[in-house]
Amino acid sequence: MNIKRSRFAKWFYGLPGAVSAYHFVWAWTGAAAYRNPSRKIFTIGVTGTKGKTTTLELINAILEAAGKRTALLSSLRAKTAEASEKNRTGNSMPGRAYIQRFLRNAVRAKCEYALIEVTSQGIAAHRHRFVKWDMGVLTNLHPEHIEAHGSYENYRAAKLSFLRYVVNGGGEVFLNRDDREFGFFFDALASAPARYSKDDEFIKDCLPQIEAARRASEGKVPDGFLLSDFNKEHIAVAAAIGRRLGVDDAAIERAILNFNGVPGRMEFVREGGYTGVVDYAHTPDSLEAAYRAVKPKPTPEHPHPRLIALLGAAGGGRDRWKRPAMGAAAARWCDEIILTDEDPYDEDPAEILGEIEKGIREADPGKAARVRSVMDRTEAVRAAFAMAREGDVVIGTGKGSEEWIHIRGGAKVPWSEREMFERAIKERAAQDR
Questions:
Q1: Global pTM exceeds 0.85
Q2: Closest-CA residue to 143 (of 328, 360, 346, 326)
Q3: Residue 316 CB: number of other CB atoms within 10 A?
Q4: 119-173 pLDDT, tens per residue?
Q5: What does CATH list as the number for 18-262?
Q6: 267-430 adopts what CATH topology?
């Protein structure tokens, strides 16, 4: 029976257009079965390479601050009104009518807004179809999923097809004026999209007040959400959408002030004079942005602080081109680098790390002496904090809030980056007592 199934699958997947048709039928069937719920709720889709989850959470925080009832579906969680649970589907934009069922449940819970993460692979599988999108957002675009799409141009085209789908359905599109691909998308869309920027007047006016309020709060508001350039872009579009939907400025500012950040996205862990940062960055551009944001500056107490990086890359043939480029980013910004497992799948972990190290050596040959390979990620976290001094920052990238490390043969090892950081930083701080 399994052999027959295997033969059928091989035959089916070999048919030109069969896979696309399969997903299209699922999208149509789901909409019909759940009676097109998106027609009864204001639906916002957020796509882009980086920042989708944070942008969705910021929009959600602003709408909730205005007293609105919301539903949210992202790589992190599925939320319907007050109920929230982790997204355990293994897919940021799940298929097989999941989105239509989510929207139906949101309507039944009397939610006014549905906020959905839209991925390029979800778009390729038609999961955005038969949804009435009232707004679509593009956060930014950088090379990613090249193997899955065949080229960067195909990846970009997938994003464009979603934005066109929004426009053709009567929705409004928001483009990031600070992104390098802004001109391409602006010119390609039939109707002029809305534009946002971290340099918008509202952002320049309100963020200094928020920063001052944080400093004056003495710990009464969260300090884990970093007001860095890339987060300012996320704030900018969330604020722009809030204002377009009639949310007053006071509610927007209150939501940003009290925003806790997103688990696994620039998540800070502190103990004594030691700092750790857990982040999901897994592309060269996102690594550059993360390293730039958290690189410690000299102070009278700590005149020579270091940035210590835990760095790996996914295996399974995923975007192999980026590994040397990720190493080069680490070489430019980090003082010490520990290479370690991320998700090797069926690839040789040592080969993955070797490709990253090659990029480090080519970018900065002198940095080679400051590179170590510690394959076991638990031991790598401990090693990073063992070498840390007060004032240093240890940053781990690639895992974020993911709950597993994927290894050979489809096996999974339970993992929590934050828990490992908390344990290691406490051990390091205890040595000073």
A1: yes
A2: 326
A3: 14
A4: 999 999 999 999 999 999 999 999 888 878 889 999 999 999 999 999 999 999 9
A5: 3.40.1190.10
A6: Protein-Tyrosine Phosphatase; Chain A (3.90.190)
